[in-house]
Amino acid sequence: MRRVTNKGKKKGGTMFSAESIQRICVLKTLIQRRPEIPDDALLIFSDLDEVPSAQAIQMLRLCKTKPSAKDGPWIQAHYPLPYNLRVGCKPRKQSELHYQGVFTTMGYLRRKKGLALRYNMRRNLVVPRAGIHLTYVGSRADVDYKLLHHGESGQVLATKATANGKRLNFCQIDDKTLASMEQLLRDNPVSVARAWERGKSSVLRKEPVGDLSKCQVPWALLAHPERYPHFWGREYS
């Protein structure tokens, strides 16, 4: 798959084939191993960095849906919050939301025989304020691990100690350089995660701006910031 040219990867293509096979396997295994789950049970299917809102889940569990809504799949509209919580809560246009992941029911999944849950933005309902999409969030090692295993990247972040500095060889990295790389990811993450922009990013504010709860940030991150220093872009202590 790594040898496939960019032309062969257009519109997903081979790039997502392994990911698609894995997802179908997970869904089919769920059907086979959990026959006791009732058909009306709510099924949440999303990536690990797409965190559904508790309010959205409770709404779908407790409220009666319109007949036209059927039992899904309902598209999750996530608020995109990249890098760390210090970027603050900025207003987002509807077109800038992250539409990925679905809510549905076990009954729907069984009727589809475990095939990947696909959805159509024109035909399926969108659940507003469904959650948050945390992108490039975590320690340097966390982000590298995610990208290395992600279906569409298979890469590691740029090994740079300064935003405008040259890329470093892995053998050149010592404790001091590693600390600089961690600091760069916290304070100027665009220069690391999107290194091809050559450091063209604004300096982040020291503290988040706006009400992060409006961006569907999970309450645990807001209530216990000391437990999640990397999510807040703070030095671990």
Give, in order, the helices and strands: HEEHEEHEHHHH
Spatial ordering of strands, largest sheet:
1-4-3-5-2
- Which range does the strand content fall in? 5-15%
Alpha plus pi helix count: 7
Radius of gyration: 20 Å
- Helix share, percent: 25-40%
**Strand segment count:** 5
Output mean pLDDT.
Answer: 85
For the termini, the CA-CA separation is: 41 Å
User: Total domains, how many?
Assistant: 2
The major beta sheet can be summarized as:
5 strands, mixed
In the predicted model, the low-confidence regions spanning at least 5 consecutive residues are: none
Shape: globular
**Alpha-beta classification:** alpha+beta
What does this molecule look like?
With 237 residues, the protein is of the alpha+beta class. It folds into two domains: 6-131, no CATH class; 140-227, no CATH class. Helices cover 27% and strands 14% of the residues. The protein contains seven helices and five strands, in the order H-E-E-H-E-E-H-E-H-H-H-H. It has helices at 17-33, 54-62, 106-111, 140-149, 175-187, 190-193, 219-223, and strands at 42-45, 50-52, 74-82, 98-105, 126-135. A five-stranded mixed beta sheet has the order 1-4-3-5-2.
Keywords:
about 240 residues, alpha+beta, 5-stranded mixed beta sheet, 7 helices, about 25% helix, ArgF protein, Glyco_trans_17, beta-1,4-mannosylglycoprotein 4-beta-N-acetylglucosaminyltransferase activity
